[in-house]
Automatic annotation (TrEMBL):
Keyword annotations from UniProtKB, A to Z: Flavoprotein, FMN, Monooxygenase, Oxidoreductase
The protein, known as: Nitronate monooxygenase
Stored Pfam families: NMO
Species this protein is from: Cyphellophora attinorum
GO terms of molecular function: nitronate monooxygenase activity
PANTHER family membership: 2-NITROPROPANE DIOXYGENASE (PTHR32332), 2-NITROPROPANE DIOXYGENASE FAMILY, PUTATIVE-RELATED (PTHR32332:SF34)
Superkingdom of the source species: Eukaryota
Length: 336
């Protein structure tokens, strides 16, 4: 499908593996490693893009070190993800002119219509070479984003996702097909990507310890308040590991006291301890956290997902063909 044409380094004949732009986690090293392993990762630019040019220069250096040849227009074989509510478009455009990239990923705007200007400007400076990905959480949002921007890819983010997402949305099992049907009814064909996967990070030991993600994680605004982040639009909330900060807020403890305790914990440990259920520091993660049992390299994760997805899709294609008495083809597999 289109993904392989636009991102030719993706492993051929395997499902496309994509890492979302996880703030403070999917930075230059993980982004470049994912491409080198045959996947596509989005460097997390977040809401403060003042370091974007430097981070992109670091990616370029890592590709050079790995002797990875860039395309003719020197475009980096990576994406960049923004939290649009705080990101400065002009600073972004300057950085992307210096270091063009294959794709950008938008999320969390103040108003959906802000995406139109971002889409138009990035398409203009890149001569349409930088593809536009937009993460959405409801059917209405998907239809409006398509009307405003006609993105190249829609990322569908279900309610179990880690980090921030719309307060009100369905789980991925129903959300993905409902958005697919709504677009199909309007004759719109845009690749859909389901958001998922949590990997790596300073708090990875805590992620390994946590089980039963529907209970061990919860959406709450206190995680941001404790960190002093106040800019997220009202319609968003962040899902993280339930910890002392979360339980204090649930009991109605004063939020200034909660923040002071959070800051004290951060200062005491220098950020090396205090994550996880018994700590106070924010550990963003989705309900899939219970499935993460081992620390693995980006390469191992990309290859494992490719293998498992190929197997499952291959088996389902064979079952489907068998029920209709047709010879087994690669129908489902080729849709990836
Ligand atoms: C630690 C963390 C940081 C994240 N940061 C961002 C971000 O900067 N921009 C963004 O669009 N999404 C961000 N997300 C959300 C992801 O795009 C995606 O929706 C989520 O990882 C999918 O959920 P899952 O990994 O729990 O299955 C973040 C998620 C996590 C867990």
């Amino acid at each position: 499908m289109a993904l392989r044409k636009d991102y030719p380094w993706l492993t051929p004949a395997a499902p496309a593996v994509i890492s979302s732009p996880m703030m403070k986690i999917c930075m230059s090293k993980l982004t470049v490693e994912t491409t080198l392993a045959g996947g596509l990762a989005f460097l997390a630019a977040g809401f403060d893009v003042s370091n974007l040019a430097k981070d992109l220069a670091e990616c370029a250096e890592l590709f050079q070190k790995a002797s990875f040849t860039l395309s003719d227009n020197n475009s980096l074989p990576i994406g960049v993800g923004f939290q649009n509510w705080g990101a400065d478009l002009q600073v972004t455009l300057k950085a992307l002119q210096q270091h063009p990239v294959a794709a950008v990923w938008f999320f969390g705007p103040k108003k959906l219509k802000d995406y139109a200007k971002w889409t138009e400007s990035i398409r203009e400076i890149s001569n349409n070479k930088t593809k536009i990905w937009i993460q959405v959480g409801t059917v209405a949002e998907a239809l409006e984003v398509v009307r405003l921007c006609r993105p190249d890819v829609l990322v569908v983010q279900g309610a179990d996702s880690g980090g921030h997402g719309l307060r009100q949305r369905a789980g991925i099992i129903t959300l993905l097909p409902e958005i697919a049907d709504a677009l199909r009814r309007k004759g719109i064909h845009i690749p859909l990507v389901a958001a998922g996967g949590i990997i790596d990070g300073r708090y990875r030991d805590e992620i390994l310890r946590v089980v039963d993600g529907g209970v061990a994680t919860a959406p709450s605004t206190i995680y941001d308040k404790a960190r002093g982040i106040t800019g997220w639009p009202e319609t968003y909330v962040g899902r993280g590991v339930t910890n002392k900060t979360y339980h204090d807020a649930a009991r109605g403890r004063n939020e200034n006291v909660i923040k002071a305790l959070h800051d004290e914990a951060l200062e005491k440990s220098g950020g090396t301890k205090g994550w996880g259920p018994r700590g106070r520091l924010t550990t963003y993660a989705g309900t899939g956290v219970g499935l993460v049992r081992e620390v693995k390299s980006a390469r191992e994760i990309v290859q494992e997902i490719q293998r498992d997805a190929s197997y499952i899709l291959g088996r389902r294609a064979a079952d489907y063909d068998a029920t209709r008495g047709r010879p087994s083809g690669d129908g489902l597999r080729s849709k990836l």
